[in-house]
């Protein structure tokens, strides 16, 4: 039985690599006991702001067996999105690097479907579901359990060899496999670069981000007016924010991704300050036709640009 589990595990990890995933780790599907009080405290302190959906499905967030009948294993996968080039005009409004290309939800979901199909074809009748940041799954907790890295002080998953510019996704399946072990220690040490650099002081303590103060929350999740107390504190970010990752010493090891679907629209990186100031809905639709930026909609992006105060 051990040999069979090992063979299945090795096959899944080999397939994940073939599909372009950067890393694959596997954990036993069980209740995340240590995460429960952290999540409860974070919600009680209203650090989710107006993201009401974070209060839903509390039990499911902590127990994958409530999401997939008979769940045995959580397969955690990472996909690099670090770009080869960034926006050219350093004085223009900025977009988080993860949103340069096609919406990652679609890119990764297709890969996960192919991986699950491959598992079913090779192994037999295996039930499971794919998850990409849009369901109640604590992806960083599972990735940590699977030995894919440690949680940095900015609450991102960090891996020594590559940094943190990657997506995390899961396949939860009803097949027992060989399980990986968490990284023994974190490697942030006494570094506080991310805490010190956060423009809105959203990192309230190591590994705890007050989402209601995060620039990504304001520019993507918040639908109403951005509070005036944050004027002048956005560091020119109009969609998302990469500050806590850009300053992280481990990201000096980041290497450009090799996924063509994550490459930016040909016009995106060359747009200057005036282009953004004058952006029309037609240009928005063309440049961000299949992008995650569509989530904030044209009016939302215009609101964000205007809030930066220089446009």
UniProtKB/TrEMBL annotation:
It is found in: Cytoplasm. GO terms for molecular function: 4 iron, 4 sulfur cluster binding; cobalamin binding; epoxyqueuosine reductase activity; metal ion binding. [4Fe-4S] cluster 2 binds at residues 198, 214, 241, 244. Pathway: tRNA modification; tRNA-queuosine biosynthesis. TRNA binds at residue 223. Monomer. This is Epoxyqueuosine reductase. It comes from Sinomicrobium oceani. The lineage of its organism: Bacteria, Pseudomonadati, Bacteroidota, Flavobacteriia, Flavobacteriales. The gene is queG.
